[in-house]
Amino acid sequence: MDIRTESSTESSLEILRVWPEAAICHGFIGRAGGVSTGAFASMNLSYWVGDDESAVDANWERIRREAPGLNLVARLNQVHGNVVHAATRDTAALRPAGDGLVTAEPGVMLGIFTADCVPLLMVDSRCKVAGALHAGWRGVIADIADAGVRAMLKLGARGSDIRAAMGPSIGQCCFEVDAELGDRFGREIAGAENHTRIGRPGKAFIDLRAVVRDQLERAGLAPANITSVGPCTRCASDRFFSRRAAAGTTTGLQMSFVGFAA
Fold first, then answer.
1. Out of 143, 163, 252, 260, which residue is the most buried by the measure of CB atoms under 10 Å away?
2. Distance (Å, rounded) from C-alpha 122 to C-alpha 220?
């Protein structure tokens, strides 16, 4: 697979892109280039974290100028599970509870919001089916990757044709958890012990993106069709929102999006 990562930096706005086809509208949006202030500085696109609504409106105007396909964006009430919804033009505004979206309708964009969790975008260009998943540690244990792939298959996608890209998220360098959670990953997820290392006494470090990669392969994706882009969000908290970097306090959220042009 020919992977290409692009960055748009006009007015400090950063969007990481992976796939070169013009028909695939997608990107991992950074935190710079908006008008929000304080904990939400500056390209916060979420209306549900306490940011000033007029600032979020202005951020959406800015991002739509940079990515014109973002006219109809389906969103979720993300709950750290493995429920995946199919989005259409008629349902895009509903914002159901769940952590994954799939669509087979060109023109419908899927938006996922994160601030350390793994944003996962998937496409089958042959069938024009797209998927977007929010994979925090709870969702990873619940295998939302497999649920997302299965939801795409129901819409006509083929596992051998699905490509996946994981965006900026907390890296193993900074995802320190209680050793009990590290042990749980090893017990409940095949191969996860290979992506867990011992930390300080009573602590462990987990590589979430590596675990998700394994899950995608088990779901039927070819290893060559899976990639990761962007840094650890905590290490690069000047470029991406990170709850860990904010010591667990309120922060903005970056949006990752995918869909096919109408």
1. 252
2. 13
